[in-house]
Structure formats: C-alpha cells, structure tokens
Design goal:
Layout lengths: L12 H8 L4 H4 L12 H5 L5 H11 L1 H23 L2 H4 L6 H8 L1 H6 L1 H8 L4 H19 L5 H15 L2 H10 L7 H9 L1 H16 L10 H23 L12 H15 L10 H7 L3 H30 L4 H7 L1 H21 L3 H20 L4 H28 L4 H15 L1 H7 L11 H37 L8 H5 L13
Helix pairs in contact: 5-10, 5-12, 5-13, 5-14, 5-15, 5-18, 7-11, 7-24, 9-12, 9-23, 10-11, 10-12, 10-15, 12-23, 13-20, 13-22, 14-19, 14-20, 18-19, 18-22, 18-23, 18-24, 18-25, 20-22, 21-22, 21-25, 22-23
Length: about 500
C-alpha cells in the first residue's frame, strides 16, 4: 500500500508548471496529493467517472475471454490423460515409461520459452499474440489425433509445449495491468480455475466422445484430440476480436476512462514503464531481487502435485475398479469442488487482504489428501474422497500464490519477467510429476504420492520465506521512512521504482 512519506514537502511551483505541461497521466498524477490508494485521490481527479461501472465493464471484457482461452489450452494439454484411458497406449504400442516420456517432452520448451514469449507480448498486441498461440496449439492437438507411433506423439507434444508456453504468463501479466492488487485475487482465481473447469469438462467430454469409438475407423482417443483441437482452432478466430489489449489501447473505454484506469493503477503500483524496451540487461536487473527466485519455488512446489493429479487422476480412478466411461464421469466432481473452494478462498483473501494464510489452509487440505492416498489402499471410497482433497487444496492454493507474487511486482518489466520466471521455473515441476507415477508402481503409487507430499513441503517453506521476507521489508521501509531516509527522492522518482519504491508496501 502506498502512502505519502511523513513530512514530505510539496512540489515547487516550477515543478507544477513542468508537470502540468505534460499530457502523460502518470506525470499529471503527481500534481495531486500522494495518498492512500484506498482513499482514492485519483477519484477526485475524475469526478465524472463511476469506478464501479468501469470495473464491471473490465470484468465483462477482460477476464471471461481469457478464461475461455486458458480452459481450452489446459484441456488440450491434459486431455492425453483421458485418451490414455481409451486405448492410446495400446494402439501406439507404448511400453515401459514411453507414455511418461511423451508427457515430459511437453515441459522442455514450455519452461524455456516463458520469458521470451512475455517479451514478445510487448511487441505484438495481446489479442494478436494470444489468438495466434491458441490457433497453433489447437492445430497441433488436432494433429495429435493422427499420430501412428511413439515418435509422432513425442513430436506433437514438443510443439504443443512451444506454442502453449506463452499463454499462461501472458494472461496473468495482462490481468495485472487492469486491476489493483486488493481486487485482483478473485479475478486471478476465476481465471486460474479454468484449469479445474477444463478438468471437469474434459472428463464429461471424453465420456461422450469415447462413445464414438470406431466411427470412420478411428478409435475414441483419436476423436478426443481431433474434436477438441478443432474446437480450439475455431474459437481462436473469435477470440482474435474478443481479447482485450492493454488499457491504453482498447476501444471500448472512453479517453477519460482510459486515463482513470491508468491513474488508479499508478496510485497502486507506480509507473508501468509500458513502453520502455525490455532488454537483456533489464531482465538481469530483475533477477537481482531475491524475491524473484523465491517466487519460482513457491509455485514449483505445487506444480508437482497439480500435474500429478491432472495427468494421472483418471488412471488412479480406473485402478479403483471402474470402467472407461465411469472413470471419466467420476473424474468430474473433484474438479467441480476444487473450483468452488478456489473461489471461496479467493473472495475471502481479497476481503481480508491476506494472502499467506489463504495459501496455507488449502495447502494443508491438499497435504491431507495425498497422505491418505499414501497410506490407505483397501478402501476405495476413502481413496476417491482423498482425490477431492488433493484437487481442492492444490488448485485453490496455486492461484493465490501466483497472484500474491505477481501483483506485488510493480511495472511492466518486473511483472513480465517475474511472472514468466515463476511460471517457467515452476513448470519444471511438471517434468518431475510425469515420472512420479510409473506403470510399475500401480495401483498403490507409493513413490508418486511421497514425491507430491515432499514438494508440497517445498512450497510451504518457500511461501513462508517470502512472507517473512516481505514482512521484514515492509517494517524496514517503515523505519527508514520515519527517519526521513528517502526525503531526497521526488515522488516521480519513487513512482518509477515500482515495488522497489520505499513508500510501497507488499501484500502479505
């Protein structure tokens, strides 16, 4: 939270004249007193703007479209787990750990191209870049339905990782450029919960498509890829016109509303540096901050149980004695409950303005689920119930972690690089996840569950370190501010520092 430093002198008359001549809202804003963002002096500067109406307009235009995009992206990524139940392994003669190898190939380019992709987002408008990525991953998913062997499957999974790498961090980055930190969590969780909707929708869709087994000579698993890939390609053409760009570039806001959106975000996080070039040097500057590295481990720890569940839950449910269609249907309820818990925790997190405690609570729920799965092997109902806990806890904590870290970063550069690193580094956990559950360990999967528990502990430690670190930094800045240590900095200089601004206070 931002507050004017005690005893800070008002700008001189000369400074007022210089700033008044500038059309830049971020410079103009310095003419107004620098007060608490909640108090909203920016509101006084725009008396004709109804903030609630503007937020409703943003809510309708920005988040739902990105939810559709990411729902289809996640569905195309994990529908291979549904395809495996319908005979993919047998038809492609996958033996040993070849199925796991095909899964892991996705993550190599997915991890490597996160930061370059976010850099490209600054050169291509979001609606162009994201809709292009969407068309390509839809096309590759469709082609996956025509693979004839292990090599073909590996090739399609590799290129799917390439084109999907830019979607998730770009969407999170774009959302962060529309909302203040105190109102972001519900929107982030709703967006992130596209994954839970995709998981549930994927199970229902696979149960229906599976009945097409043999149609025109194609097995049911091939139809899953073909139909879902085709739908993604068609929707990408629609989203080209529906995805919103950055606030200053959209056509559905008036000129005054655009200035209002920029001013409220400037009050909350400082100068956006939207048009400053992202260079190799500026990227390395971001990595000098220890919080960036810790942010990667916060997400990394939960990616392992998340992908373990997404890729292997259908196989685990099938191992409890269920048939193919029943397995797909039983995979839906845990995803639905995960969506409900994610939205409840997000709403409470925004209302109470707390992040850390709402990471710990769902993480504990996830941990309980995996511990039950580790130690209970003779009670199918309890094992199935534990899958609910694993999904609900994991997929409720993850969006809070990413939102907490992302919205604590100020400015385009730090958010672009920081978000891409967190998601890219975190997804290395996907490589671990796909080799955690091996066919030889079925049906108990003791190594897999043990690995998930261990990495949940890693995430808890990293989140605790981050919480203690930002709490200490807030107290340090309070003490230095009281001593007048930053009185030599102008308000414009401070604002341009983003979250490194000594007046800035991190969310905890």
């Amino acid at each position: 939270m931002l507050t004017r430093a005690p005893g800070k002198s008002t700008p001189s008359l000369h400074e007022h004249r210089v700033e008044a001549a500038s059309p830049d809202v971020e410079k103009q804003y310095n003419l107004a007193p620098y007060v608490d963002a909640d108090g909203g002096d920016y509101k006084a500067r725009f008396p004709n703007i109804d903030e609630a109406k503007v937020i409703r307009k943003i809510d309708l235009r920005v988040v739902p479209v990105l939810c559709v995009l990411y729902l289809l992206a996640f569905l195309d990524r994990v529908n291979i787990s549904n395809a495996a139940v319908f005979g993919l392994k047998q038809d492609l003669n996958l033996g040993g750990n070849e199925f796991n190898t095909a899964l892991v190939v996705f993550f190599a380019p997915y991890v490597l191209f996160e930061i370059p992709s976010n850099a490209l987002l600054k050169h291509f408008k979001p609606h162009v870049w994201l809709s292009l990525c969407m068309f390509l991953f839809g096309l590759i998913t469709l082609l996956q339905g025509f693979t004839q062997n292990f090599s073909g499957l590996v090739a399609t999974r590799f290129f799917l990782g390439v084109v999907e790498s830019g979607v998730f961090p770009a969407c999170f980055y774009l959302i962060a450029m529309w909302y203040k930190r105190a109102e972001a969590q519900k929107r982030y969780s709703f967006f992130f919960s596209s994954t839970t909707l995709a998981g549930g929708f994927g199970g229902l869709l696979a149960s229906a498509i599976g009945k097409m087994d043999g149609l025109r000579g194609y097995r049911g698993w091939r139809w899953i890829f073909i139909i879902e890939g085709l739908v993604t390609c068609l929707v990408s053409a629609i989203l080209y016109f529906a995805i919103s760009d950055f606030p200053e570039e959209v056509t559905w806001l008036s000129a005054e509303e655009k200035e209002f959106v920029k001013a409220r975000l400037y009050e909350d996080v400082g100068h956006s540096k939207r048009h400053d070039p992202l260079t190799v040097k500026s990227v390395f500057e971001v990595f000098k901050d220890w919080k960036i590295i810790v942010g990667g481990f916060m997400y990394f720890g939960l990616i392992v149980p998340a992908y373990s569940y997404a890729y292997f839950a259908p196989s685990i449910i099938q191992s409890l004695g269920n048939g193919m269609i029943r397995t797909q249907l039983l995979s839906v309820p845990p995803w639905a409950c995960a969506f409900a818990l994610a939205m409840i925790t997000a709403t409470l997190s925004d209302w109470l303005r707390l992040r850390f405690v709402f990471v710990l609570i769902p993480t504990a729920i996830s941990l309980a689920g995996f511990i039950i799965l580790l130690v209970v092997h003779d009670n199918n109902h309890l094992q199935y119930g534990a899958l609910f806990l694993a999904a609900m806890g994991t997929y409720s904590a993850m969006p809070i972690i990413v939102c907490w870290f992302n919205t604590n970063l100020g400015g385009h550069h730090r958010r672009a690089v920081g978000t891409a690193f967190q998601v890219g580094f975190g997804n290395i956990g996907g490589i671990i996840a796909v080799f955690a559950f091996l066919a030889k360990d079925a049906p108990k999967y003791i190594p897999g569950y043990s690995i998930c528990i261990a990495f949940i502990a890693v995430s808890v430690i990293a989140n605790t370190v981050y919480f203690l670190g930002v709490s200490w930094e807030n107290r340090r800045r309070d003490a230095l501010q009281a001593q007048g240590a930053y009185d030599g900095l102008s308000q414009d200089e401070k604002k341009r520092m983003g979250d490194l601004n000594p007046d800035y206070r991190y969310f905890r």
